[in-house]
Amino acid sequence: MAFITLTGISKSFAGVRALQNVDMVINKGEIRCLAGENGGGKSTLIKVISGFYTPDEGQIEINGKLYKKLTPQQAIKEGIQIIYQDFSVFPNLTVAENIALNHERLLGKWLVNWKSIRENAQRALDMIGVQMDLDALVGSLSVADKQLVAICRALLQDAKLLVMDEPTTALTRKEVDALFAVTRDLQAKGISILFVSHKLEEVFEIAEELTILRNGAKVIEGPMKEFDRAKFIYHMTGRTIEPTQFESPVTSGEPLMKVENIGITDLFDDISFELYAGEVMAITGLLGSGRSELARALFGLDKLTSGRIFIEGKQITLGNVKDAIESGIAYVPEDRLTEGLFLPHSIDNNVISATIDGVLNKQRMLSAKKTKTLSSSWIEELKIVTPSGNMPAQTLSGGNQQRVVLAKWLSSHPKILILNGPTVGVDIGSKTDIHSYTRELAKKGMGVIIISDDIPEVLENCNRVLLMKKGQIIEKMSCEGLTEEALSRKLTDVVEEVAR
Amino acid sequence: MQKDKLLGRDGKLAMMTDGKLNGLLADSNLVRLALIMVGAFTLMAVLNPQLYLTVRNFQSMAFQFPEIGLMSIAVMIAMLMGGINLSVLGIANLSTIIAAYVMIATEPHIGGWGATFLGIATALAIGVVCGALNGALIAWVGIPAILATLGTMEIFTGIAVYITGGSAVFGLPAQFAYIGSGRIGPVPMPLIVFAGIVALCIIVLQRKKFGLEVYLMGTNQKAATFTGILTERVIIKAHIMSGVLAAMGGIIMSSRAVSAKADYGSSYTIMAILVAVLGGTNPFGGFGKVMGVVMSIMTIQFLASGFNILRVDAYFRTFIWGALLVAMLLINYYGNKISEKKQIKATRAASSDASA
What is the CATH number of domain A257-499? Predict the structure, then answer.
């Protein structure tokens, strides 16, 4: 029996069609997986289900009741609970408060009954068979426990459909198993689960039904057993993936960048590697492995407490970002919205922002002509879709925004380009473009470092991969002959060892 | 300054890249302000043409608005970074009081002109120090600008009251009075000083690297750090600039009074904020034009002089200033919404072209 039926859902944002005519049914007590690449429309669909976005077209039927315009309040009332990637928990409150405060709030009483908060929180924990200190601050919990808190909160609000958005991103293998056990347990209680993921192995393990979105449209759906690996990947990416592997360049002579035993107390330690011109090297690891901290340090954002860095044989000190830029390092940050772009400013200003000196005239004044020339050439080169460079960067789609960030750094003519999660939240077209462009840059002699936990991305585009855990590099591998399964296992197994 | 350097390629007053900072948004803002300014002037001129449209009235207006105009630009600079400077008046009074003591002490030895010169240099130096203190508190200590400058406002005013005992410092050189009360031909000195400083500010904020860094940082300080902009240095420099402009405003103010006092211009702090916001400065940072603030202060002066001539009640005037501020915020809010919609439309058209 259907719990929720979506019919012909379409939704557009400035210049981008996020969802096109999507149909989906979730039955009671079913575990359905919603799969698709980053930018495929998964998040938008979740937000439609939760009532956060009103679709431009289409309708939603929940429990036989038709909603033309579903509000978040109605969705919650119908028992739809979303567990977002960041869990939306309050780190400054206790476990009990996080689980039961909203439930208590909705009762609409004058005063808060603290006793019932504790009781309800305990009841929710019992439902999933988990022991936890009710008075512990949620900020001090592990990622997995935070997630369980979020699940308990949802259960207490009488969840009938639990949507989990990329729930395994930061979990160890053991924690994933525990989560799956809880998930199956909830299913047995008649709760529907929508499991949103792009991770192949997990989808096969947990889901019964599968819906795949690509570029905002549903491409296929059906029982999980009708799918195999190849079919899944084909429908998700729209390509038969022949891992066109990045060819290992000939590396000889002096390395472009040489890093010797660098570390920052408590973040990462004893990192050494060499990067040669023409290489695309990956640094991978789970969230919290120190991969982003390492990237920040290589760009002068945080100061090293030990070790040395050489660029073309010369030792450099990275006191700030300016030092890094002057040493020929560029960094495309993880979060382009807060770290990469000046959203309200024009594309032109964003492109020149790291190289203002290059657009000054003889009197050291900003030259409009030089700005335009530089920016236009990048808009053309990187195929940024916009009517004009005068448009604010916030009018662009994710993929185009990422191209602006890339343009900003490439105009500084770096020797070394560090890309942190370069294609997160980027549509497939842009993703492919960014990948092929990166390879081209390497071919021209740039040294590229990609920091990513997107395994296909790493294997396809890099010739080497460094695996990080707990702030250390534990393995250096060549990508040649390395399979997705092998790398994926290494990535999760690694954490397993630490957990024991 | 060559003409073609001040003028952009399309002949508009040179804002070069920043003239295109926010494309549609920025330009429509200036047009809007110009219309409001002309409207205010016309209204007042029509209501009482015999007294309003006289050389005397124009001169009197030109003597009055530069001091607060400079303080408004000082506030605007802080607002461009998403902050504010509440201490402008404190800086103005403290710097001129110390300058006054320096002038009084040195006039017998180096003469009136020498003392005046030294006094101005002293006031500007105090402006630098005060601005640097504001900047350091905000950039290094990380105190929000509104609290940091609220604190320093009290400090600066407190020092000023303490060293003067609250009374005015008289006996300034006659030459010093020339800055505030003199004329070159029919043109009052304050207006000339103001025009020169405005031109300088336009160059520094809208044509130099430093200015672009201020505008960029104002919308996203984190991204600015990631871009290699030395944000702390930019904040401190900008507040020094703000402090110097405040001191300059103080010099004109004290020169017009031929004295210095801790509580001169007591309504100026609020007024300067009002003028900056009316001038289209975005209080969240990143956007605002010197010319916008100039038109805004002139609008206010046109109205204020008109009210004087019409003998409008002082309390009612306060109400009008407040209503004007709120109205302008609303106009900007809806104006920006409309331009945003236009931009989205244009982007949509472009992306459908690209996919076609």
Answer: 3.40.50.300
